[in-house]
Write a structure and sequence with these properties.
By secondary structure, this protein is an alpha/beta fold. The chain has 3 domains: 3-157, Alpha-D-Glucose-1,6-Bisphosphate, Chain A, domain 3 (3-Layer(aba) Sandwich), CATH 3.40.120; 163-371, Alpha-D-Glucose-1,6-Bisphosphate, subunit A, domain 3 (Alpha-D-Glucose-1,6-Bisphosphate, Chain A, domain 3), CATH 3.40.120.10; 377-460, TATA-Binding Protein (2-Layer Sandwich), CATH 3.30.310.50. The protein has helices at 24-42, 59-72, 85-94, 127-139, 159-168, 175-180, 194-204, 232-240, 269-282, 296-303, 315-325, 348-362, 366-372, 391-401, 442-460, and strands at 3-6, 9-13, 48-53, 76-82, 99-103, 112-118, 153-155, 184-188, 208-212, 245-249, 256-259, 287-290, 308-311, 329-332, 336-338, 377-384, 406-408, 413-416, 421-426, 432-439. Helix 3 (85-94) crosses helix 5 (159-168). The radius of gyration is 22 Å and the shape is globular. It has 15 helices and 20 strands. The structure holds magnesium ion. Residues 106-107, 250, 252, 254-255 line the site of magnesium ion.
Length: 461
């Protein structure tokens, strides 16, 4: 039973009481707030919004509520139905729409759903817009349309194919070259819409596809976050079927992970590293990821003569810094590839197509390619605090203790030591500090985390 309202949208569990879960009433209220915000923001006579969803069981219900609320406000809706987050992002500018909504709770389990909100460029709303929408929702400050002014819903049911066409048009994606490489690839899409999009993309590129959990029915066969501990089935399948590699996506297809030909994780952090390595080899330039992502991207960027910068955690922050720095490619270490040549949003179709082209071009095995990259290991921990503690004060004290080191305070405290790093972030919802470390071995990363936990305990006592 949870409903989380924040500047990045509304997310909650299905069922239960209004205001405590994502019930139909909460859905309508929030969709109406978004519609009212759009009307204020763009001041146009007629507005148009693209709406799509992942394959969650609650998806159709939440989508119908959202679309009917928008037409109630006099806004036209383009219903693209089962789709992916990047597909909706691509559809907004292609349809010259004024906004977009994706109904998905991303990597969260099946009882969750959420409204992800886009602007007229098909990009996530910034914090300022998010705060305005929250305020409108709180005040229920919306006025519905008279009967003659209601909006209309039109259906376009082939947007995933259109999205694939856009991906194949990219200069650095070469379907013919990939087809000649005769690759066999296993795909695990947790029975969501990646099960439509990824096999279709691969087949278009002449790849033989072995499908696992590609039925878009919303019954996730394992925890849908693409982490090693959830991916034993595909790792087995890749080995058993002697596939060249495996592809895993999350339910809304903005996170991408690979499995090598031996059934070992390529490492979600290395999806972006490999895609960047390929893109920068053709078009040198700068890169961006968030502060909690692997240092390997910075190493690869320098190898190609570019420079690397890190943003605060969160896709909007990565995108903003990418724009400011004119980055060639960027994203998030959790398998989020942002390639501005396509659009400014994490897109697993783009990532998969770039990776396939790279493999077809260099003829290497996936494990060989992984072996060429600097090896780093992460440790992800948290320290539980009592609510009375001043978390900001604790972080300040850590910063002070390490004032001689390379420090960033853009988002919590990140300390870059010569051989490793630590990133401390407070949670906005719980009294905890998250402690992420990265080092040249797992043991070193774990030890560094323990050292930081001791340091924080020291500061508190
Ligand atoms: Mg996602």
């Amino acid at each position: 039973m949870t409903l989380i309202k924040s500047i990045s949208g509304i997310r909650g569990t299905i069922g239960g009481n209004t205001g405590e879960n994502l019930t139909p009433i909460d859905t309508v209220k929030f969709a109406a707030a978004y519609g009212a915000w759009l009307k204020n923001e763009y001041k146009k006579e007629k507005l148009k919004v693209v709406v799509g969803r992942d394959a969650r069981i609650s998806g159709k219900m939440i989508q119908e509520l959202t679309m009917n609320t928008l037409i109630g406000l006099g806004i036209d809706v383009i219903d693209i139905g089962l789709s992916t987050t990047p597909t909706v992002e691509v559809a907004v500018p292609l349809e010259s729409a004024d906004g977009g909504i994706i109904l998905t709770a991303s990597h969260n389990p099946k009882q969750w759903n959420a409204l992800k909100l886009l602007n007229n460029k098909g990009e996530f709303l910034d914090g300022e817009a998010g705060a305005k929408i929250l305020k409108i929702a709180e005040a229920e400050d919306f006025e519905f349309s008279q009967v003659d002014k209601l909006g209309k819903i039109s259906v376009i049911d082939d947007y995933i194919e259109r999205h694939i066409e856009e991906v194949l048009k990219l200069k650095l994606v070469d379907g013919e070259k990939v087809a000649k490489a005769n690759l066999r690839v296993a795909v695990d899409a947790v029975n969501s819409t990646g099960g439509i999009a990824i096999p279709a993309l691969l087949k278009k590129m002449g790849v033989e596809v072995i499908e696992l959990y590609c039925e878009p029915n919303g019954h996730f066969p394992h925890n849908p976050e693409p982490l090693k501990e959830h991916l034993t089935d595909i790792c087995e399948l890749v080995k058993e079927k002697k596939a060249d590699f495996g592809i895993v996506v999350d339910p809304d297809v903005d996170r991408l992970a690979f499995i090598d030909e031996n059934g070992e994780m390529f490492g979600e952090e290395y999806t972006l590293v490999a895609c960047a390595d390929y893109v920068l080899s053709k078009t040198p330039g700068d890169t961006v990821s968030n502060l909690s992502s692997s240092r390997a991207l910075s190493d690869i960027t320098r190898k190609h003569g570019g420079s690397y910068e890190a943003s605060a955690v969160g896709e909007v922050n990565v995108v903003k810094l990418m724009k400011d720095n004119n980055a060639i490619i960027g994203g998030e270490g959790n398998g989020g590839i942002i390639y501005p040549e396509a659009h400014y949003g994490r897109d697993s179709l783009v990532g998969a197509a770039l990776f396939l082209t790279y493999l077809a071009e260099n003829g290497k095995k996936v494990s060989e390619l992984r072996g060429e990259y600097p090896s780093y290991f992460m440790s992800k921990n948290k320290i539980e605090l009592t609510p009375d503690l001043d978390v900001d004060g604790i972080l300040k004290a850590v910063e002070k203790r390490h004032s001689g080191e390379e420090i960033s305070t853009v988002d919590g405290v990140k300390i870059d030591f010569p051989e490793n790093w630590v990133h401390l972030r407070k949670s906005n919802t719980e009294p905890i500090i998250r402690i992420y470390t990265e080092a040249k071995s797992q043991q070193e990363a774990d030890e560094l985390a323990q050292k930081m936990i001791k340091e924080i305990e020291d500061i508190i006592s």
